[in-house]
Every structure is written in structure tokens, then in C-alpha cells.
Amino acid sequence: MIDSMTGYGKSEATLGSKKIIAEIKSLNSKALDLNMRLAPVYREKEMELRGLVAAAVERGKVDFSLWIESAAGAHTASINPDAVADYQRQIEAVCAQTGIAHPGTDIWNVILRLPDTLKAADDEVLTDDEWQVARRVVEEAVAGLVAFRRQEGEALYKKFKEKIDNISALLAAIEPFEQSRVEKIRQRLYDRLSELKGVDYDKNRLEQELIYYIEKLDISEEKQRLANHLKYFVDTMSVGHGQGKKLGFIAQEMGREINTTGSKSNQAEMQNIVVKMKDELEQIKEQVLNVL
Q: What kind of fold does domain 7-74+127-150 have according to CATH?
């Protein structure tokens, strides 16, 4: 069964005064485009996390976040007095040199927005216990994403199957018009020739040319190839995930056969059916971009 590239997963766990939260979202993309946002304490594990996420998601535009929320009342940070004093000296010096107005009492609002003015109450060190909890949270979030993708894939499968069945039905609907078309072409040519008074022609040669002309308009091969592509598309969906690009290629081949059929159809009823087939195929092409 096919999987979608669209998905979402989230998980969290509590460790002491910390709540560890992992969240992952994905959309369609031609390749893996992984954007990671990590709490500082987990940055040393970035490569391991990238490998874990990449192995599970395979392809798509992925946003992954792993952060920490502290329990209410927990003291998580304090002002760094050295950094504040240094910033204050620099601000006063710049104001004196350039004539820029001193921020006055608002200097606190200015300084606290600058880097390193806040520091952790304790030096954060990633312990083995915390990493085990964090890794489990990440794995659960990723598993949630995979499950979400599978559910979306099932919906896509049903949609594609419906569209493939519609194209198959339209392909079958062409046949009655195809049979009558040959006789109409033949009769139209004879009617035109009958209007040419006093013109003699070789009837055997005319029949040969007529057969050649009708053969050029024959769409039997296009119909057979299109039917094969429709079956191959359904079979490929049933293989498993990771078939998105292949399904896209098959859809392109289906489009070629439908376009050729349309170019050979010089009858309004057949051309109307071809337009409907193109509409069904366009809906397939739009959604196949979401298939993993």
C-alpha cells in the first residue's frame, strides 16, 4: 500500500521538572529536506537524530523540533551579570561617541534582548537517562508521523483507484464511436468525390489510400497501451511504499497515450471522452506528488 508524504506526529514525556516534547511535520518534496530545531542540550545528538528521522521519513519536506518545557515554579535561568555590565558599558560608550540618545530606563529592555544575558541556573549536561527518555519521545513522534502517512496513503489509494476505474470506463466508451467513425470517414470521402463531376479516378487506388488513411487514424495500439498502463498503475500501488516517483512516470505515459488518442479522434463524441479522461488523469497527477 502506498504512503503519503504528508504527516504529523507528536510525543512528550516528563523527566523530573522537565517536559521533553518532540514534534514532526512533513509535506511533499522531490527529495528529503530536513529542518531540525533542537534544544541546546540535545545539539550534540543532532547527527544521530538526523539519521533516525531520515531513515523513517525517506522523502519529503520535514520540520522536526525537540524542546524542553520546565514545570511551573522551576527555576530555569538567571541573569548573567557580567554580560549585562559589559553590554551597559558598550551602550553608554556608543551613545557618547555617536550622540545617539541613551535608552535611559529602557536600557533593561534593550539588554535583555541581547545574546547571553540569561544563563541556565545549572550547566546543562545531557545525562544518559535523559537521552534515553528523549530518544524514546522522538521515536514515538516519528512513529506517529509514519502512521499518519499510512492513513493518508490509504485515502490516496482509494482516490487513485476511483480515477483509474473512471478512465477505464471512458476508454471502453470510445469503442462504439470508433466503429462508426470508420464508416463515416469512408462515406464522407465518397460523397466528396461524387461531387466532382466529370473526374475519373482509379477505384482500387482509392481503396488503398483509404485503407492507409484509416490505419493512420486507428487507435487500437493506444488503447491497448493505455489499458496496460492503467493496470500497471494499480499493481504498483499494491507493491508498497516508496513508489511515488514510479507512479508519476506511469501517469506521464498514460498522458501520452490519451493525447495521441485525442489527436487521432476526428469525431466530436470521441474528443469529448478524451477530454474527460484528461481531467481524471490531471487529478491523479496532482495527488501523485504527495505519494512517498
A: Ribosomal Protein S5; domain 2 (3.30.230)
